[in-house]
Amino acid sequence: MNEFSGRRVVIMGGSRGIGRSIALGFAGAGAAVAICARGAEALEATRREIEALSVVGYAATADLANADDIARFIPEAAAALGGIDILVNNASGFGGSDDEESWAVSVSVDLMAVVRASQASLPYLGSAMEAAIVNITSISAMRATKRNPPYGAIKAAVIHYTASQARMLAASGIRVNAVAPGSIEFPGGTWERRRTEDAALYDGTLAQIPFGRMGTPEEVADVVMFLAGHKARWVTGQTIVVDGGQLLGA
Questions:
Q1: d(CA 13, CA 167)
Q2: Taking a C-beta distance cutoff of 8 angstroms, is the pair 222, 177 a contact?
Q3: Under DSSP, is residue 241 helix (H, G, I), strand (E, B) or coil?
Q4: Is-above-0.90 flag for pTM?
Q5: Which of 213, 156, 224 is nearest to 13 (CA)?
Q6: What does the alpha-carbon distance between residue 8 and residue 34 come to, in Å, rounded to a whole number?
Q7: How many other C-beta atoms are found inside a 10 Å radius of the C-beta of residue 155?
Q8: Is there a catalytic annotation at residue 58?
Q9: Helix/strand/coil for 181
């Protein structure tokens, strides 16, 4: 329960869904947690949930497509927590169409926010014990798609960058890994909406999953915490698929 007691965790995109579950998972294991996102109301609600677990919680609004917002948030989070031991890059702009706008948001949020937050965190991570970065990618990176080509392509770039980060940062004692979730359902999320708005897509996707259900944010959070923790101390440069076998049925 106290595996992360005394550790300082920063989560980029931590107010809802997978990010919220990661934040609460670390907080429940004793870590101080800082989160950011664009929506102030959801951020504040999650911050209160973090602090209800008797740890330090910090939240601030930030648009992760904006380099200045990232450059501001990381030092603020480090000051609030007393440093940074673990960085989780979770945010996504989910570019879904093969057009300029979708490509731009995918590049700026899904890729460049990872680069910028990682680089801004290095001065803090470099002096931390068992420092770790975990990047959230997607199984969309691992197969061709007609529905969301920018999202899949840029998430594939995150997998490649994760491996490159791992090689670059090993000498500084920083491990870098990634988690690739499959279809994850939660209140207010994409798959909950598609259940009613696009039942054919929802049912077709569900049919690809051998266990016959969508995943939960908590199931992703558990793997993120494993990769960030001591038990994964000899794991770096890897991408772990968390999809209940969804790729097996694709």
A1: 25
A2: no
A3: strand
A4: yes
A5: 224
A6: 8
A7: 26
A8: no
A9: strand
What confidence tier does 168 reach under pLDDT thresholds 50, 70, 90?
very high
Q: What is the pLDDT of residue 1?
A: 67
How far apart, in whole angstroms, are the C-alpha atoms of residue 107 and residue 94? 10
Q: pLDDT digits over 104-127, tens only?
A: 999 999 999 999 999 999 999 998
For residues 43 and 36, the answer to whether their CB atoms sit within 8 Å is yes
pLDDT at 195: 84
What's CA 191's distance to the chain center, in Å? 17
Element housing 177 (H / E): strand 175-181
How large is the average pLDDT for residues 148-159?
96
> Average pLDDT of 10-19?
96
Give the gyration radius of the chain's Cα atoms: 17
Q: Which class is 8-241 in CATH?
A: alpha beta
**β 132-136/175-181 pair status:** parallel
**Start-end of H helices in 170-216:** 190-197, 199-207
The catalytic position among 58, 124, 151, 161 is 151
